[in-house]
Amino acid sequence: MPKIKSLSNACKVSFSPDGPISDEALERVRALLDEIRPIDVGLDNEAQIARNWNNSTRQPNGRRGRNGANQFTSPIKYLHIHESESFSMGIFCMPPSSVIPLHNHPGMTVLSKLLYGTLHAESYDWIDVTDPTDQLQELSVRPARLVRDREMSAPETTILYPNRGGNIHTFRAITPCALFDVLSPPYSAEKGRDCSYFRKSSVRETPPVVLPGEINSAEVIWLEELEDHQPPEGFVVARGLYKGPVIRR
């Protein structure tokens, strides 16, 4: 049986519309995701290109054409694999220097496998504040703490949870790379799981709040949600063609 189908079968019995049924079930899915390689999802050629990619032949904001002039990089592509009420699977193929902006996964558990390439990951978790002040609510900002700020190189698998592990995160591709995401449950605006985008707040004076005792104020960053769940201007994701084994319902 193809590895991607084994992964899908494990997801079907391990995830519910409320997320993973147990820690053990989640670990089974993670172990199978660890085994997925680019060739298992039809990306062997793209992975080979990434392995041969040479930073010196391309500019940070583009790629060289035949005449040596810079060209704009191609957009990020999303390869949809499968979705049910309990989970979804898909792959983001990112050209060098492309960015998936700061966003969240409300009420969701997410497993991410870097199939090939290298990227920089920056992630945050919300800091719970009891009895937020009127100033904090008026500014529409929330405090968060840094969870991860480092490079990731394939193959690497991470897990984030609804309230920990870096649920709010951003990725910047250093080389061509592909990120395989398994979400449980999937995004659903109707069920309150719409994707929101954020920016680091420009507030100059820190709103007065009482932070939990274990939080160092130096670790705190203030995040502001963009309006109407809209991504930052210029962020484009194109639909790509998934060439791996088809997952039947």
Automatic annotation (TrEMBL):
Domain of life: Eukaryota
Taxonomic path: Eukaryota, Viridiplantae, Streptophyta, Embryophyta, Tracheophyta
Name of this protein: cysteine dioxygenase
Chemical reaction(s) catalysed: L-cysteine + O2 = 3-sulfino-L-alanine + H(+)
Alphabetized Gene3D superfamilies for the sequence: Jelly Rolls
Ranges of compositional bias, category Polar residues: 51-60
Species of provenance: Oryza sativa subsp. indica (Rice)
Top-tier EC class: oxidoreductase
Positions of region (Disordered): 51-70
Family: Belongs to the cysteine dioxygenase family.
Metal-binding keyword on record: yes
